[in-house]
Structures are given as C-alpha cells and as structure tokens.
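subagent[fold] <- orchestrator: predict structure for attached chain, return tokens only, no commentary.
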Amino acid sequence: MPDPVVPQPGGQKTPEQRLVDTTLTFSMDMGAALTAESGVSTEEREAVNALPSGSALLVVRRGPNVGARFLLDSDVTTAGRHPDADIFLDDVTVSRKHAQFLRHGTSFSVKDNGSLNGTYFDGVRIDEALLTDGAEVQVGKFRLTFYASRVDLARLANA
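subagent[fold] -> orchestrator:
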C-alpha cells in the first residue's frame, strides 16, 4: 500500500493525490463478518444471535473473568463488587454498587452510581450513556462489550 500523501501548504495538490470513494454499504452479512474479525467466538456469536427482543449481552473482554457473559433482560441490572449485585465484578477497582444497566424498551443505557474509579463508555468517563451495539463499557479493570438483540437491530434498520 502506498504511503499516505500529505497535503501541500496552501491547499495545492500533488499529482499523487486523487479522490477516492469512501462510501460503505452495511449489511447484516457484513456485520457477521466484522463480528468474526473482532475476536468474537462462534459460541458468543450464537448467543448474541439468539437474544430475544428487549435483551442484550455483555461479554468481558479484559480484566478478571475474560469471556464471562452477562444477560441484560430486566429493567435494572446492577453491577459492582457487592455480593448482591446482578453482575458481580470481584476486583478492588470496582465499587460495591458501581453502575446500573437500564433498559428503555429495546435500548439500554449505563449509569455510573458515583463510583470512585468511574464508568467509561468507549474510553470516555460518563455519568450515563445510551449503549450502542459493539460499544465498550469499562468498570474498574473490567472491559465489557455490549451486544444488542439482533431482532431489535433488524427492526431499527427497517424502520
């Protein structure tokens, strides 16, 4: 692949510069291919594809318990180091009542509960954020990937 061309001062273009079409059409088949390339196992992909409407899945990608999966299928799912948390994350970097995953119909958000180390959405510290498919949520040392129901994503795509 050729080296990238650096624009010349004053907006002048060198002969090597040319327009390139960067339009990309996304399909569900492509989504499956992208998922396969992003380190998702066949078992995880099958679990995501089997999610019913109004549910989602969190998969631990980094930190203790790599590969653990947590089903989001209630209006409020708590995450923290407290033994009664719905998602028990046993590490000192996680507050006892660190965060909540909230369901809003067929979408989900994550809300930090005033934790010491914060909750991060795609690398940005948040108080609350609407989750998107494939987004990363960080709670302490744990990095979790959020997967929405494919049924709900298909409905959104056809709306």
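orchestrator: received. Logging for downstream: The chain has one domain: 20-158. The chain has three helices and eleven strands.
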